[in-house]
Amino acid sequence: MTGIDQSLLFDDLGSRTVQADFSGGHLSSEGGALLLRQVDRRVGISRRLASCFKDLRHQGFVEHSVPSLIAQRLHGLALGYEDLNDHNLLRRDPLLAVCADKLDPLGLDRKLERDKGKALASAPTLNRLELGTEKQTRCHKIVANPPAIQSLLLEVGTSFLPKGTREIILDLDAMGHLLHGSQEVRVFSGFYSEYCYLPLYIVAGGIPLWTQVRTANRGAAFGAVEALIQVVGAVRKRFPKARIIVRGDSGFCTPELMDWCEDHRVYYCLGLQRNERLELLLRPAMDSARARRCLIGGVGTRVFTEFEYATLTTWRAPRRVIGKAQITSEGENPRFIVTNLRAESFSKNECFRAEPAELYEELYCARGNMENVLKQQVLDLEGDRMSTHYLGSNQLRLWLSTFAYLLLERLRCLTLQGTKLAKATVGTIRLRLFKVAAMIQVSVRRIHIRLASSYPLQQLYNQCLSRLKASTDPCG
Q1: How many CB atoms are located within 10 Å of the residue 246 CB?
Q2: What is the pTM of this model?
Q3: Which CATH class is domain 147-380?
């Protein structure tokens, strides 16, 4: 017997011996991946993303098609395997092979004897997929089309927004992704005190529409107008009458962005960095807040006001500024936003939304929800794993994690509404719904997957599958 075949002995349980071995056969810990596969087949994310690649390989020698490679990578990310090296072992998982639409999930039809039992692609094969755009060698013959991928992300993302949407808020943000190697065009960031990239994200209602890797020697708003041109165009194509609001922190408050929004019937609500002139205009409200704090016994208080303001040289006209005069136990905390939203921007029943307090607290502060989306993509899907050398291949990795998030978001939207996982993070959904022990039996006529009888969420699992089968419109 080899070491791996030997029994593993544990402490006895009463009078019984406790032992284990690795003779269980074709097992998987990813029984919930079947639900993910069902969503992918309905929406077609893997298939549509694969169409954005050009395969120059001799098809007579190809065992892993581009659609199967993309499906393997996306499902691997969704299941928590963000590192390519994970696939050197995952390639033996028959359930992941089913998700990648491998007709022989046991890998018994592989041409080389050394590959028997390994239905899926290895880490080097997946790596060549990611590097094909950067390297042109006899080994790198799968070439991505970046503009097509970005267009697909916009198409898929906007299709996931609910039909009949009357208002779409586009949240802009930049996040530093740290680099731990000699990546191409890496730059030291004084803000993060590390070498990093600074990707631009645009999210609408929890749906990522734009993810663009950028170097860290630019401001947060670099390329934002060019991105908005494409994003707003795609949104208006599906929702021609919807009100579009661009929302972001003070890093995106640039004259170019505000000018573009005003010239193209787009509203904005942006953070505005404070200065002496703004603080002077806010002084009456700050005095009022201080007096109110004295009346209520030292509890923190805030007063909102508005005024017209223009910079001395850069703004082409005065703009509406909302000021928050806040006093806490730590002292004064003045804050400002600038917006072109006014009462006439809303219907008669919604004009209250143009009030200063409403704009600041209900509209601007709600941008924190977008940060929750980015945290899930980074913490649960390792979207910041920028470990390849080239900027282009790191961009492809960011797109892959974004499409994996969209796959999970569609699963949440179609199957988990009204359940205890309706607002769960990607990591929680993965842990509770996907990590199910499964035994796979393959015969000529069927693939029988036996899920663990002790799985505690069987009713929810059945409900998810029923909702997927009953759904008539998987895209919105």
Answers
A1: 26
A2: 0.92
A3: alpha beta
